[in-house]
């Protein structure tokens, strides 16, 4: 059974940093591109970024580019999202997702909540 | 960005057929996907590439469309289908619709 479990979400002050993790199991992690998607309190979904199978290539949404960094450790089957210089607009549930063949998201973790507030 | 527009809410009776629409601001070929999200849960993939049923999804769910207009159909609707349904395109980067909240009468 495919499982994705995020952790690391918390309350953080504007301008601060936070690192999210996602542990994967039930599939060969190193064979899949992985993505982060977030959901705002108003329930809108926004794609954050993606990473290729060996971690050598990443793509980001313009709204977070140069502030967030996606990385992975295939030996630990773990995906990361390093967030820096966070803003109130970054308040959201952050989901780790597995990318399907046509760039849909075929499995999602339960999410981890990030709240940016002073 | 490619904007996806969905109706905000629908109400139907169990046993009926319901169609949920998603309109793209520009053509996305057939790269449209549908998700179901129940309260307090993460989204779940239902349909990929416009009309392909994801693994384990009941055959009551189906998808159609291409270009700019797409439809998710549930027939017949069951009580457990109460949820918000999102469309997502992957032809021009990745964007999501605002979601359609399905309520049962």
Which key features would you list for this structure?
heterodimer, A: 118 residues, mainly beta, 7-stranded mixed beta sheet, 4-stranded antiparallel beta sheet, 0% helix, globular, B: 105 residues, 11 strands, 50% strand
Summarize it.
The complex is a heterodimer of chains A (118) and B (105). With 118 residues, chain A is mainly beta.
Write up this protein:
The complex is a heterodimer of chains A (118) and B (105). Chain A is built from no helices and 11 strands. Chain A is mainly β. In chain A, a hairpin with a 5-residue loop joins strand 4 (34-39) and strand 5. By secondary structure, chain B is an all-beta fold. Chain B contains no helices and 11 strands. In chain B, the strands form 2 sheets. In chain B, strands 2, 4, 5, 6, 9, 10 and 11 form a 7-stranded mixed beta sheet that branches. In chain B, a hairpin with a 5-residue loop joins strand 9 and strand 10 (95-96). Chain B is globular and about 35 Å long. The chains are: A mainly beta (118), B mainly beta (105). Chains A and B meet through strand 5 and strand 10 of A and strand 5, strand 9 and strand 10 of B.
């Amino acid at each position: 059974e495919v499982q994705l479990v995020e952790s690391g979400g918390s309350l953080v002050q504007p301008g601060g940093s936070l690192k999210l993790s996602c542990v994967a199991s039930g599939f060969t992690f190193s064979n899949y591109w992985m993505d982060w998607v977030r959901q705002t309190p108003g329930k809108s979904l926004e794609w954050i970024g993606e990473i290729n199978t060996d971690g050598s290539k990443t793509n980001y949404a313009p709204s977070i580019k140069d502030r967030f960094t996606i990385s992975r450790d295939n030996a630990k089957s773990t995906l990361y999202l390093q967030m820096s210089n966070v803003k109130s607009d970054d308040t959201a549930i952050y989901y780790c997702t597995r990318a399907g063949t046509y760039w849909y998201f075929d499995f999602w973790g339960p999410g981890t909540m990030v709240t940016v507030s002073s | 960005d490619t904007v996806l527009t969905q109706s905000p809410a629908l109400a139907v009776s169990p046993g009926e057929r319901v169609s949920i629409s998603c309109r793209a601001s520009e053509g996305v070929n057939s790269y449209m996907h549908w998700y179901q999200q129940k309260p307090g849960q993460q989204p779940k993939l239902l349909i990929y590439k416009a009309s392909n049923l994801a693994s384990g999804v009941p055959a009551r769910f189906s998808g159609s469309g291409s270009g700019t207009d797409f439809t998710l159909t549930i027939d017949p609707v069951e009580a457990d289908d109460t949820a918000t349904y999102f469309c997502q395109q992957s032809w021009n980067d990745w964007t999501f619709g605002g979601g359609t909240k399905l309520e049962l009468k």
